[in-house]
Amino acid sequence: MNPKPVREKSIAYLHWGSAYQLRSFQDFSHYIDEQIYLGDLGQVDLNQFAAIIVADAMDSVTIAAHARQLNNYVRNGGFLIVFFQGNADWIDVVPLNWRPHTTKDWLWWMKPGQRLEIHQPEPSHPICDHIPLSNMSWHWGGAYALDKNGQSILNLDEGDASLFLDFRNIEGGGRLMVSTLDPHSHNGQRFMPATTRFLQGFYPWLNRELGIERPKRNRFTYLQCTHNLSDWRPPWIETSLTDAGFDVQFCPLYALDEAVLSATDYLYLPANHDEVFLQRNQALLLDYLENGGNMIICAEPVTSWLPFISPFNAVSPRPFSNIKIRLRDDRPGFFAQMDDTFDGWQDVYGQYARGWSDMPPGAIWLTDVGPQHDPKPADWLWRYPAASGKGGFVFMHNGDSMIRYPDHGPHKEQLVRDICLGLQSLILAKQIL
Length: 433
Known about the structure:
- The protein has about 425 residues and is α/β, with parallel strands linked by helices.
- Helices cover about 20% and strands about 20% of the residues.
- It has ten helices and 20 strands.
- β18 (about 365-370) and β19 (about 375-385) form a beta hairpin.
- α4 (about 185-190) packs across α5.
- The longest helix has 17 residues, at about 195-210.
- It is elongated and about 70 Å long.
C-alpha cells in the first residue's frame, strides 16, 4: 500500500491565464499559497497541497486533458474545489448528473422583491454561516442532481437540483466541492458585487476549514532618516498605529537589511531621505515588494532609486489654489476620515504636497495638485507586478512627510494610520480595487 501523502497546510489556485482569474487571485492572494497555470499542471505534484481551487472561466477542453491527475489528487486524499459552468464531465471520483439550467429571469435583481429561485436547504452547510444567500445570488451555469453522498449548499426552488455540492469522505479520504456559480470571473471583471462578497466569505472559510492561520499583516516599520525632533521618532505615529492594532517598530535608515524587511508589512519612508543609499539597496527593496511587502513613500525624488519612481515636478504656486489638494479617487478609503482642509499644516498650504511624479501603468490616481484644468497626481497607489501575483502595494506621496496630518480635528495626526488600515483592508480582501 502506498503511504498517504504528507500534505502541507497550503492552498493552490488553478487558473487558465484568464485576466479575470488572475485578478481574483491577486485580490485574495493573502489566503492562497500558490497559483498554478493550467499549462504547467502536468509538472506539479498536487499531493503537496491541502486544497486546490479550480477557478471558473476555465476552458473546458483544456482542463479535461488533466482529468486523471485531478481525480487522482482527490483519490489520494486531496480536497478539490471546482467552480465550473457547464458539465464538468471530466470529474469521475463521484457520479455527477449535470442538467442544463439557468435563471428564469436575468433581470430578477431589477424587479420588486429582488428574489432569485434558489435557497440554502436545511440543515444548512457550515459555509452558509460565512456566505449568506444574498451573496450566492446572481446566476449559474447548469445544475447537478442531488446526491445522498453529497451535502447540497444551494438548491433550486423547483425540483431536486443543486448549484453547490460538497462530497466528504470520498474513497481514499478525499473531498470534492463542485459549483456551477462563477464568482472569480465576475469579481475579476469588477461586475456583480455579490460575487466579490461571495469570495470574501469563501476564502476565510476555506482557511478556517483547513486550520490555516494567516498573519494579521499588522507590522509597521518607520525608517528613521533625519535626526531631528519631528522626524526621528514622532510619538503620535506610534500611538495612533498601536491603538489601531499595529505592531510599530523604528529602524534607522542605514540599519535597513533583509532581516528588518522580513519582519515588516508596511515600510514608511519620511520625505527627507538618502536616495543614494536607497538606490544601492534597490534589489533588497524590490525583493521586499515581490514578496508582498508594502511601502509608503514620502518623496520629491530626483533619481529613480526604484525603477517605477520618476523625478518630481513642482506645480506653479500661483494662484495658491494650485497647491490645494483635492481628492480624485479614494476607493481604498485612505482619506475617508479627513475633512476638506486636511492638507493645511497650521493653515499653510503647500506643506503637504507641491507637485507630482509620473505614475507607473496601472496605478490609481488618488489626489490632485495643480490647476483645476491641468491636475497632476500628488498621491498614487500601485501594486507591484510580481510574477507570483502576490506583490505588495506602493503608496506614493509626492510631498512632505504625512505623519503630522491632519493637524486638527478628531482624527488629528492619524492619516498614516488610515493609510495603513486601507492597505491592510486591501491585502485581507476586505476591500477590492
